[in-house]
Amino acid sequence: MTDPTDDSRDRTDPAVPFDHETVRYERDEGVAVVTVDRPESRNAIDDRTALGLRDAWRRFDTDDEALLGVLTGAGDDFCAGADLKQMDLEDREEGWLGCSRMRVDKPTVAAVEGHAVAGGLELALWCDLRVAAADATFGCFERRFGVPLVDGGTQRLPRLVGRGRALDMILTGRAVDAAEAHDWGLVDRVVDSGTALDAARELAAGIAAHPQTTVKSDRAALYDGLGESLETGLKVEAWHGTKALATADEGATRFAEGEGRGGESVDR
């Protein structure tokens, strides 16, 4: 299991400009926004864009000033998946689309406008939470062209919506609108068209206001416990929890001194 306090990984220098032609990395205080910038192709992913996504999320994971990450697409769509006109993607360790097999140590939110289909759906599933515009569309559209799901869709989708609904999407390739996706638990928030990124930023900023040691340790415990027995999962939870005891003690002291009484919000 991953130690959320481990700082032994290779680190990038956030002061070095992020230079990718089709992927942008922009940080506003504690929220980093990663944008796929190929609106002319509905943000379909070619090989250079996959490399950009890989590098953007590596940067996010080692950027100490970035607490939350938001993934979105430029223009009217989130992402249409792999660029079938190029067909130049490579099966790298991080995944065909650049990040689908990566695990970052901080929370992520997908901001979905328009289409999140095929590999675009898989990128949205890679994020922890999904905020979708009311007119957003989700679907395994690669079914129509004989392209397999190889960026986590067959594994993450049933974990979110259940086996039956996942098979419905995977086998039929049909379009699922935002309302149905929300009913299924595929989408966490539905907002007005054109406001998904703002809403995702707001959601991310709210999470960023909490003590981050326990945000990260509880998130890690959830992921490390998936698929395990309850007995093993409780041990996983306890292991991660012990890494956050100092933060818990500090929070308990603040509460004892009167902060947060009566259910009022606490910005930390």
TrEMBL record:
Which InterPro entries does its entry note?
A: ClpP/crotonase-like_dom_sf, Enoyl-CoA_hyd/isom_CS, Enoyl-CoA_hydra/iso
- Which Pfam families does UniProt cross-reference here? ECH_1
Signal peptide (from-to): none
Which top-level group of life is the source organism from?
Archaea
Q: Which residue spans traverse the membrane? A: none
User: So what family is this one in?
Assistant: Belongs to the enoyl-CoA hydratase/isomerase family.
Query: What is the protein name given in its UniProt record?
Result: Crotonase/enoyl-CoA hydratase family protein
* Organism of origin: Halomarina rubra
